[in-house]
């Protein structure tokens, strides 16, 4: 295959000695090798740097390692990594997963087949710390249903305003789109931010590949991770204040307006609607009676911007 694109991998590391060698070896085993691997380390205190340097000396492609002078945290570390990348396509990589050997080739081919694509994402096989399958996929754990996938292919923003279904470890982005999303705000996770800004701008398609292209390792030190919850766990989770409710959409509005990205009017109205809905949910009164009236008069917002009836019941009773 004649490669049209140059490929960069942006990897962030922090005390990853336990699993990083397996991840690096899975990148080395790719049927389509990357043109460069950019690693930003957030001041590891274990053997992570030693392992990376050994790999760097042996890899058949360029490996560039940056060691932060101060800890940046995940979001800003990924921002630094992508800004150091020089490829046309940028693949995000966590330090503890394992890539299927065809991942880069399959995803690059999707960009070649879909010139208007700005982001390509895949599903993932959820595995334990020993890479044994947990019996379900990432999309099943979110959940990201077939119905939602069909909606997403027509209008990704409508799905993303309800919940983030994009995981950075399964994502590749055109560099021209990445350039339009920086700087990443600290209040957002890098993958959710990139997806939200690209979808808001209608800046090309976001393409889904319904195949497991990575083994997404779940272990005690995952920053986020994903888990398929049973009913009891779902009820307990409903009692908590969800991260999605706390996302700062003032930042999204300001970013889109300040950069004059000519966001379609309809999309900007949806962002404003989401922003108002988030503020409403975050400022509900403490009494159930007080919450009841407010929630019931804003049911359309719960349908458009939250998880429908589940979010209604959560806000009334918890």
UniProtKB/TrEMBL annotation:
One of its GO terms (molecular function) is hexosyltransferase activity. The keyword Transferase applies. Residues 8-156 form the Glycosyltransferase 2-like domain. It comes from the Bacteria. The keyword Transferase applies. It holds the Pfam family Glycos_transf_2. Keywords: Transferase. CDD domains: GT_2_like_d (cd04196). Belongs to the glycosyltransferase 2 family. This is Glycosyl transferase family 2.
């Amino acid at each position: 295959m004649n490669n049209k694109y140059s490929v960069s991998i942006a990897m962030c590391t922090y005390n990853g000695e336990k699993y990083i060698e397996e991840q690096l070896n899975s990148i080395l085993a790719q049927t389509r090798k990357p043109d460069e691997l950019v690693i930003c380390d957030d001041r590891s205190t274990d053997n992570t740097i030693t392992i990376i340097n050994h790999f760097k000396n042996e890899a058949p492609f360029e490996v560039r390692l940056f060691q932060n002078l101060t800890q940046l945290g995940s979001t800003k570390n990924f921002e630094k990594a992508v800004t150091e990348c020089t490829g046309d396509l940028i693949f995000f990589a966590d330090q503890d997963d394992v890539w299927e050997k065809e991942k880069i080739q399959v995803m690059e081919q999707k960009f070649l087949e879909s010139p208007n694509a700005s982001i390509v994402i895949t599903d993932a096989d959820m595995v334990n710390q020993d890479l044994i399958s947990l019996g379900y996929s990432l999309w099943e754990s979110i959940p990201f249903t077939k119905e939602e996938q069909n909606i997403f292919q027509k209008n990704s923003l409508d799905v993303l305003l309800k919940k983030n279904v994009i995981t950075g470890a399964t994502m590749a982005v055109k560099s021209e789109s990445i350039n339009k999303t920086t700087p990443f705000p600290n209040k957002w996770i890098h993958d959710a931010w990139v997806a939200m800004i690209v979808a808001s701008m209608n800046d090309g398609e976001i393409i889904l590949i319904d195949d497991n292209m990575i083994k997404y390792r779940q272990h005690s030190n995952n920053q986020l991770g994903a888990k398929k919850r049973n009913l009891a766990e779902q009820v307990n989770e409903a009692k908590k204040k969800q991260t999605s409710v706390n996302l700062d959409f003032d930042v999204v509005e300001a970013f889109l307006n300040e950069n004059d990205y000519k966001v379609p009017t309809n999309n900007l109205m949806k962002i404003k609607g989401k922003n108002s809905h988030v503020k409403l949910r975050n400022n509900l009164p403490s009494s159930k009676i007080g919450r009841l009236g407010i929630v019931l008069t804003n049911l359309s917002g719960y349908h458009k911007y939250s998880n429908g009836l589940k979010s209604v019941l959560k806000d009334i009773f918890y």
